[in-house]
Amino acid sequence: MLYVLANFVDMLGRNMPVHRVLYKPATMPYFTFRLAGAIATFTFFAYSGWRTSFNEFFAGYFNSVADVHYVSEDLPAAEGYYQRSLLYSPNIYHARHALATIYQQQLEPSKAKREWQEATDFSATPEAYVNLAYALERQEDRLEAVLVLREGLTKFPGNGHLKNAMGIAFLQIQVFDSALYYFESARQHNPVSEQASINLVSAGIKSGLSFPADSLYALLQSTSTGLRANAVALANHQGIALDLPFDPGTDTALSVYQAALISNSLINQTQNLDTVLLGKIIKLASRESNSFFRLELQVASADAYYRYGHTGKAIDLLRQAGFFSGRAGDQEKLGLWALEQGSAALAHDFFVKAEDRESKDAIYYQAIALTEFDIPAAVEAWDRILKSSDTARHNIARLYHRALTLPMSEMGTSSSEEKFLFALYRLPLFEEQPFTTLVENLPKHLQPRAWWTRAGQWLAIDESERAAACLEHITDPGWANSVSQQLLAIALRAGDIDFIKSLLPNVNWEGEHQLRGQLYHGVVQQDTARIVAAGRANPFFEEGVVAAALQLEKNEATRLDGYSLLVNALLYKPESVYLLKAYALQAARIGFDEQSQEALDK
Known about the structure:
mainly alpha; Serine Threonine Protein Phosphatase 5, Tetratricopeptide repeat; 602 residues; 34 helices; single chain
């Protein structure tokens, strides 16, 4: 435009057809125009911060190249290009975020923390503060995380993400009132309202707050899966059994909240569970799309199976989960289950594995298990506890250690608890009169437990008559149902079906004992399916296993199934005299003479 005006303004003013004139400009030649334009352009860039545009161009280019390598999972190359982009423009949040993520994947938390710190320094955003706080929490620097979030809230006071993160930070350091305040405040911001509501319920659970029943059921009606998952967790915390239909759904890929809802419901709704539903959950957990939640779902399902009486399935599931998780807690739970089922030797093996995984409680549990079958080793274990820094357990360790080492001559000066333990673990089984005398001088509340334990010791060596004689000493009404259940087991060993028929209507079966009740009803009714189902459910239930094996032996087609059932049970209780006798007889009838003789030798 400048070129045209300088040379043709006079002709244009007279409305002459300029485009038809052959003219050599004199005022401003074209070269002069181009030179002036170049000077003007250079001046524009010189005074407009051209370096910024130049740097941002190259920073964006290297950022894009890094993204390509990151998506291709070539992390070293991606890291290099992100760093080159930051050389040109250090305030690119995307590059800082990506580098921090890479360092987290490479297990370099200090580098990740540095990137989040620089992200807040160069381009402060709410997200940068939240990510820096989470990085600090992962390094157990929780107080610093609170300070970072507080700084973020001074710059972005109305940001819901920062308030929610601040609530989580206070929850980590157990300042529950502040956590509840920030979660409640974060609920007013739509982007994080649902997440803050979920966290608010979680904080309530951790702080020990009790929610009214109507509030609890209102949460259960929510459309948010996360809120319902936490509502069920809250019900578990308050000991409230929910009477709600439970269905894991049809999704093949679970979300975090769906997995949490299933796990919490498995803990809560024991009465509404069945093996079909549990099988469906196990199938969901085995899918590759749910691998992140697999262990938690398996552990929750194992708990449900155990409470339902399917002890064998429960232990197999928990063993599998414990192998992959490497957690000491899984081994401890396996040991406690085995101890509850009467297999102290197997329980001890699990507790040793827990100690290998650095469990603080493993040696205590080992001492309890060893007391049942190896007194010298138990004395050493209790002595280890007395010499340890676990002062909370010194009193009980001192009690057991003294009872297991106390000379008979000092028994008169010992406490009632020491006499109780001495009678059970120091007096040989066949010294019946000294045991009776010692137990009769114990306080009334200890006597039923002493006779009950002694009866179990007699049953362990298949002395049913002596076990029944011990049970006759228990007259406390609170023990009546347990005694009746044990008497049914003794009658089944003896084949006294008439006694089972007479006693069975008066016995209550709850929780994991329901399948045992099914066994006795099956025996009375000669219902093979019920007998076999009960025998297969719990390999520790010796009477059920033997009854099922005998029932299967009657049919030539299932004869070996009964033999396999006994073999499997002996893996759980290899010291069981009753199982060894049944195995020896069945092996001999099948023709496995060598195996039969080995069992008899044991």
